[in-house]
Design a protein that fits this description.
The chain has a two-stranded antiparallel sheet with strand order 1-2. The protein is about 65% helix and about 0% strand. With about 350 residues, the protein is mostly helical. It is a multi-pass membrane protein.
Length: about 350
């Protein structure tokens, strides 16, 4: 929308052409999303509290979580609202990538909302069944994958990129659809599993979104992409605005979600944010880098897989409780210590991911 305004106002004063600059719109995107989150947050928390839309706590979980029972949840709706408004305001709406990332993100938000609604408002502890949740996630991911594959305009859009190696690309054909599907669904569920402590999931999400914004900017710039030997994806630079909106809304949410949390994001936020990171990584062809930078999410997911597999095959648990952040809680680590240490690990992993730009 700002681009349309810029076209009109630049006829009056050339200074308004600054709105055409991607970096300027990205900064506006961060600030807009952050402002919306901070403004909407208190009213949303008050409304959630009044309607008693609160978090339920597992009886077999850490005792420190019992005090969190009743804390407002579904705060992820605030994140999605801020991301959507900021992106629609600051991004180039003629860019198909913007609509793909928005629709994938919001669609997963709807799936998460239904799950939260059933759990919290209808009193169904199971929420949306695992089969139903997986079906709808799969439908959205496959739809996005097929659309992107069939509308690809250059070979680089569907090639598999191997980081740390210069000019190592693989033409995987329809394997692109399969890869895209697993990245979106896997990332969505991984962030959802990580969202168990105050601020644990949102800060790594913010850091990864910021790093992906750098990849998007460089991939969309023909000179930078050639210099760094990364695939040039025409018009991918516009994803910087979306990533910036994720950063701003995430920081705004963290204002209320930091320990002790005033609100939880719920599945409506966790499923959507994970899908957002996954689809952006796919579009800038950095799936492996996403796995590196999202190492915390990967670790949490693997811990659950190991725990379930071990219990089903040996009737024994490897961890005191899964996901792994609960294991450390039961070992006696204070919640803030776990959160900050996981954040530190995320910082290191994001820097390693960014290092792939030059270590080739």
């Amino acid at each position: 929308m700002l681009l349309l305004l810029a076209d009109f106002l630049s006829n009056i004063d050339s200074g308004f052409r600054v709105l055409h600059y991607l970096t300027f719109r990205a900064i506006l995107g961060v600030l807009t999303a952050l402002s919306i989150s901070l403004l909407v947050g208190p009213a949303m928390i008050e409304k959630l509290t009044r309607k008693k839309i609160g978090q339920s706590v597992r009886d077999d979980g850490p005792q420190s979580h019992f005090s969190k029972s009743g804390t407002p949840t579904m705060g992820g709706a605030m994140i999605l609202f801020a991301v959507a408004i900021s992106t629609l305001l600051c991004a180039d709406l003629s860019n198909r990538y913007i609509w793909v990332v928005l629709l994938v993100t919001l669609a997963h938000g709807v799936i998460g909302f239904i799950d939260d609604y059933k759990k919290v408002l209808l009193g169904n502890s199971d929420g949306l069944s695992a089969r139903a949740k997986y079906f709808w996630q799969s439908l959205v991911a496959l739809g996005a994958a097929l659309y992107l594959y069939n509308t690809a305009q250059v070979a680089a859009e569907t090639q598999f990129i191997v980081p740390f190696f210069k000019n190592v690309t693989l033409d995987i054909g329809w394997g692109y659809v399969v890869l895209t599907y697993f990245v979106i669904v896997g990332s969505s569920n991984a962030v959802n599993l990580t969202d168990g402590l105050d601020g644990l999931a949102i800060m790594p999400t913010v850091m990864i979104a910021a790093a992906l914004a750098i990849f998007a900017y460089l991939s969309g710039h023909v000179n930078f992409s050639q210099y760094l030997a990364i695939p040039h994806i025409p018009k991918a630079g516009e994803l910087v605005v979306f990533c910036a909106a994720l950063v701003g809304s995430g920081l705004g949410f963290l204002w209320f979600n930091t320990y002790p949390a005033m609100v939880f994001m719920g599945d409506v936020g966790a499923l959507a944010l994970g899908a957002a990171l996954g689809i952006v990584a796919v579009l800038v062809r950095q799936e492996i880098v996403l796995v590196i930078m999202g190492g915390i999410f990967v670790m949490e997911t693997i811990s659950v897989i190991i725990q379930v597999a071990s219990f089903k095959t040996r009737k024994k648990r490897v961890f005191l409780m899964a996901p792994i952040h609960h294991h450390y809680e039961l070992k006696g680590w204070p919640e803030p210590r776990i959160i900050v240490r996981f954040w530190i690990i995320s910082v290191i992993l994001v820097l390693i991911g960014l290092a792939t730009l030059k270590l080739r």
